[in-house]
Amino acid sequence: AQTVTQSQPEMSVQEAETVTLSCTYDTSESDYYLFWYKQPPSRQMILVIRQEAYKQQNATENRFSVNFQKAAKSFSLKISDSQLGDAAMYFCASVPRTGNQFYFGTGTSLTVIP
Amino acid sequence: KAGVTQTPRYLIKTRGQQVTLSCSPISGHRSVSWYQQTPGQGLQFLFEYFSETQRNKGNFPGRFSGRQFSNSRSEMNVSTLELGDSALYLCASSLVGGVRYNEQFFGPGTRLTVL
Question: Are A4 and A101 in contact (CB under 8 A)?
């Protein structure tokens, strides 16, 4: 089994500033994927960014990037130039490469202050 | 391409009743997973269906069941509802195989309230 821990229930950031959301995970799998999903208020969950564990290079998607530390089992999300539309619940998730059962953290609620 | 759809969007039931939720995956997606989302608990995995077979199951009581049809549409059923079953139930579909393997696309959810 896998566990995913998000230790920050709530975070806030000033508009245009940078914020980092933390995530740690525990897995016995040798190969797996890691994801950050965003769930805006009353809206659908959407994929923000994905990291394949065998790749050492950190994934980047526009203003979103990750700091993947495999040995430490850490997978943090950095949001640069924060925008009001970034306000949402963010979930970290992991899944074994050979399986399809996702393990989610409890989420971090991000508030963006104008 | 149409996204994942879930019906109904909202449900109010009373304790002891049963409920059936429906999920239509993205066209071509054969894997459907169900999650229960509650404040403070995050998303808890219920089960996953692939080609009409339950492939994975989470740690939920037998009151929670599901099935998948030949067109990949899936239903989940909760019998003998309890107050603690009040939650947002999310369905997610994925395309098994290929570059986008394991990326799950979520539906809007069904908000179930048990009174």
Answer: no
All residues of chain B having their beta carbon less than 8 Å from the beta carbon of residue A6 are 42
Judged by CB atoms closer than 8 Å, whether chains meet at B43 and A97 is answered as no
Determine contact: B56 vs chain A, CB below 8 A. yes
pLDDT computed for residue A97 by the predictor: 80
Spans of chain B, pLDDT less than 50: 98-99
pLDDT band at A100 (very low <50, low <70, confident <90, very high): confident
Amino acid identity of residue B93, one-letter, is S
Helix (H, G, I), strand (E, B) or coil at A37: strand
Is the Cα dihedral B42, B79, B68, B2 positive or negative?
negative
Output phi, psi for B36, to 5 deg: -110, 125
| Residue B91 to residues A8, A52, A58, B27, Cα–Cα distance (Å) | 25, 23, 29, 14
Q: Return the bridge partners of A111, or none.
A: A12
What integer pLDDT is reported at residue A102 of this predicted model? 87
Q: What is the pLDDT of residue B102?
A: 67
